[in-house]
């Protein structure tokens, strides 16, 4: 009888400890300043990949990151600044482009395009705007792929120009991550 009582008491304590741990984690996540992207809250305590997989607006980007074997890189400490094209941005590309890029034989090209959307370091929207002001209306950044992206202002919004002259608008800025920041863009930027 005594053994059953002790076992039940220990089980209750373990259950309460586990439950309070879940509640503490849930409360911590609720206390975080989240940004909604693609119908999902983006948590600053999660890394770029952990957040991106929950955005219904970024399923193409997530598939591309997986196909390019960049998941591990984007889960590392970074920090990184990622200009994240939406599904609609990928749909603006010529018909068949995404399907072609996702083929294993095009992995290197896909890696180059995706890393062209990434800057080393964490660059908030205010940092980028300060750089644009310092550069008399333009700021040029070297991407992880080795190319350059040029940022400029259009009214109060940040725009990016790629090496081919293509333009992308930042539609959601400062989606903070544990390993950097994401800025959602409405077009895919392309290197030369």
TrEMBL record:
Domain FAS1: 45-189
Database matches in Pfam families: Fasciclin
Any one annotated GO CC term: extracellular space
Entry keyword set: Signal
Keyword Signal: yes
Cited InterPro entries: Adhesion/Biosynth-related (IPR050904), FAS1_dom_sf (IPR036378), FAS1_domain (IPR000782)
Signal peptide residues on this chain, from the entry's feature table: 1-24
Protein name, entry field: Fasciclin domain-containing protein
Taxonomic classification: Bacteria, Pseudomonadati, Bacteroidota, Flavobacteriia, Flavobacteriales
């Amino acid at each position: 009888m005594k053994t059953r009582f002790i076992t039940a008491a220990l089980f209750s304590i373990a259950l309460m400890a586990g439950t309070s741990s879940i509640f503490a984690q849930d409360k911590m996540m609720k206390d975080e300043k989240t940004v909604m992207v693609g119908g999902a809250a983006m948590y600053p305590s999660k890394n770029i990949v952990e957040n991106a997989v929950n955005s219904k607006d970024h399923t193409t980007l997530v598939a591309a990151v997986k196909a390019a074997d960049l998941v591990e890189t984007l889960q590392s400490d970074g920090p990184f600044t990622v200009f994240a094209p939406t599904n609609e941005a990928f749909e603006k590309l010529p018909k068949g482009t995404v399907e072609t890029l996702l083929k294993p034989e095009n992995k290197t090209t896909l890696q180059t395009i995706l890393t062209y959307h990434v800057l080393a370091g964490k660059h908030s929207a205010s940092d980028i705007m300060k750089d644009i002001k310092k550069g008399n209306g333009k700021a040029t950044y070297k991407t992880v792929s080795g190319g350059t992206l040029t940022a400029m202002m259009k009214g109060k919004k940040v725009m990016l120009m790629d090496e081919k002259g293509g333009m992308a608008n930042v539609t959601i800025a400062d989606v903070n991550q544990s390993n950097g920041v994401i800025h959602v863009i409405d077009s895919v930027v392309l290197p030369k």
